[in-house]
Amino acid sequence: MSAIAELSMTDLAGAIARGEVTALAAAEACIARIDAKDKALNAFIRLDRAEALEAARAADRKRASGGALGPLHGVPMAHKDMYYREGRVSTCGSKIRRDFVPKVTATVLERLDAAGAIDLGTLNMAEFAQNPTGHNAHFGDAHNPWNPPYCTGGSSSGSGVAVASRMVYAALGSDTGGSIRLPATICGVTGIKGTQTRVSRAGVMPLSFSMDNVGPLTRTARDAARFMAVIAGQDPKDPTSAPEPVPDYEAALTGDIRGLRIAVPQEWFFDGADDVVVTAFEAALDVLKARGAVVERISAPSLGPVCTAVAVVSRVEGATIHANWMRERAGDYAVHLSARLFGGYALPANYYLEALSLRGPLLRRFCAEALGGYDIVATPTLRTRVPTLAETDVDADPANWQRFMAVSANTRPFNYLGLPTISLPCGFDDRGLPIGLQLAGRPFAEGRVLQVADAYQRETDWHARVPG
Predict the structure, then answer these.
(1) Model confidence over 78-91: pLDDT tens digits?
(2) Which of 8, 157, 165, 179 is catalytic?
(3) pTM beyond cutoff 0.85
(4) For the chain, what is the largest distance between any 2 Cα atoms, rounded to a whole number of angstroms?
(5) Angle at 39 between CA 38 and CA 44, to 5 degrees
(6) Active site residue 179
(7) Backbone angles phi, psi at 203, to 5 degrees
């Protein structure tokens, strides 16, 4: 069972299709890992054990009958507890929605179901997806599988933990300021957010109208490519979803990145960076150069106003979404979250409108500075070594606020700019905690981002390492 649990998502799907592994064996392997590890790590909010095992048996019957199989047939997954499934509780990691039962199913869940995936249940998350560390006052904090006193990254904390610890093969997260990429880097897995509007958000609890993204946490870039191909594409239920055709992302994973140009912005991303992070990042660039990529340092001064605007947009939109609950149930929020939401009400409307109006010009400027002559922008995902849960607990000590917000400093700009961005492991620090490499591309260039990530993973094994 341990060997089955350690297969990648795409390898498992292939093994099931060939009849080498059954979907039931894969589901039982995951459930065995959950039973052994989740008490200490707290990744799951709900495990649908009986339903998942029956779905796995049905998947095996379908294969045995010769029925057509989807690209994820029989693959066990679980998802951040903000993706609605009709008739099942979706807590959004909150007290307010602890008993909420939606009447709709998220489009991305419907697409995963159609692809043959098995849903094991729902995963822990930061309350209403609103913090970068993964703390949760209502369901308890998830714990880092490499070193439990340390944070997991958020807000998709349970997703990062479950994939890293091999409880599931992949998991949906969401990313408004880094909430896929942060748990990916801190837990040592691969996580991608697509171009803004690339994936439908229908049936998903919102945080920010203009910056929310749906995407996967997986073990490899190839896994992410297949997952994205399943969930991406226009959806009539989400009028903001883009009509751009979805390419074959896996076909782009040739391993050949000769001549690709990679830009490394010198502003912002390295401010206060720890030496161990910079060393791992530079070593990752050397791997890409050895495979034929051209790496150059550039200046991108547009990042200053980008980082100011992202704070305004996220706070105002979050406060708007939560306005009724904040009037009626403010005491049911964690202290740090209600403080952030109240702050959104203090921002003048002209600040918000200015931040929105600058988005297009700043995107064009950044693309000219950083992507005009380049294919990819590369940065560290997290500037510093992974902090502990205690060091980033702002409810226990408001003095931790600066460290808490610094966790997402390098991820937030790409949400405002709406660019496709991936994080993948590129090393470990002196305490055995992962370090992440972040790669961003032009709008709708997910294939190029995945191509570079896959080329890197062909030369390294950081993504294949498993917590003890």
Answers:
(1) 999 999 999 999 99
(2) 179
(3) yes
(4) 62
(5) 45
(6) yes
(7) 80, 25
